[in-house]
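Example 393, ligand iron/sulfur cluster.
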Amino acid sequence: MSEYLYIHIPFCVRKCVYCDFLSVCHDEAVAREYIDALCRELALKKGFAGELKSIYIGGGTPSLLPNDCFTQLFKCLRDGFKFSASPEITVEANPGTMDESKINALLLLGVNRLSIGVQSFNDNELKTLGRIHTSEEAARAIGAIKKAGLKNFSIDLMYGIPGQTMDSWKETLSRATWFSPNHISSYELTPEKGTPLYEMVKSEESNPPLPPFTKGGMGGLLKKIKMPDEELVLDMFGYAIDYLSSKGYEHYEISNFALPGFRCIHNMNYWDRGEYIGAGAGAHSFIRSLRSKNAGDIKKYIEITGSGNIPEIESIKLAPSDEIKEFIFLGLRKTEGISILKAKELGIAFPGACKELIDEGYLEITEGLLRLTRKGLPLSNMVIVKIFENLEL
Ligand code: SF4
């Protein structure tokens, strides 16, 4: 029985240039049909759920939904599921879609954590990313959240943005901590294939003409763009660790920092390979050792649930070698690392398989836990690939 539920809301005002999440431009009529479909899926999946410790409503931009859609969604949740005594209930929010009425409506429904996609407090960087809000609007949204009395909120930031300097990154971090959020996520911007950003970077590097790009209404806005130097990006990552630690934040996962007692329990469950139920277009679930995925096409998702079926299009039982891979790459994301004892139970030959990486200073073992060192943290992908090679996975 899973105690963790993820709900995907795939609507945004418009597509950001770097976005490869499942989201489409908002259409209220479609969103309303979608919420009906979600309620049908939740009713079909409630039998897999125990007492919920966490509900995470992500996207997309969930905060775009009209208040009555949230009321409908929470009625389905409260009617169909048991909640634990103090569940973590998170909603992802875009500062361009938050006002006092939205915040108060969410709090009244029982939402007790907001994750706010600020990304930067520099307006030029926000424009480069194609975000819909300014830094001033972000500050106003956070002010409104604090005024409503919600202390448990997280601010999402991004480094490695084209045109970003170390000074502007320092300013963004300083402004973020000024609001005293309980949690800060700090992600490196990477140009993912299929996004406008990827095309902009590629054309800068090899000089081909830019393709016409119309996806998500971004047509005509593309320009050639250069990503910041790798060394600067590494320094930004290092600065974030030092600065946020000096402000009392625990660096508990590669990209996540929390004041003591405020780690995101929902995401901790992913990194611990715990079970979870996913609902909504494209959502993933992990139940009884099966990893499954919902239809990503919104029309198809609505149709399948309309015919009374669970909208899953893929379901696989992991091979033992895949389970080991997951255990390593998810577990090493946590700064506390992975248990050597547990690794041995899974048949992993630690520490032998990573002796070289330990000698080279990328990994360390203390108190029975294998973890990335400060040198290894920004190079986690390379370190993990090396471990897989040594284990012949
Ligand atoms: S707000 Fe931007 S980055 Fe986030 S899901 Fe929407 S389009 Fe993607």
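Summary: The chain has a mean pLDDT of 94.
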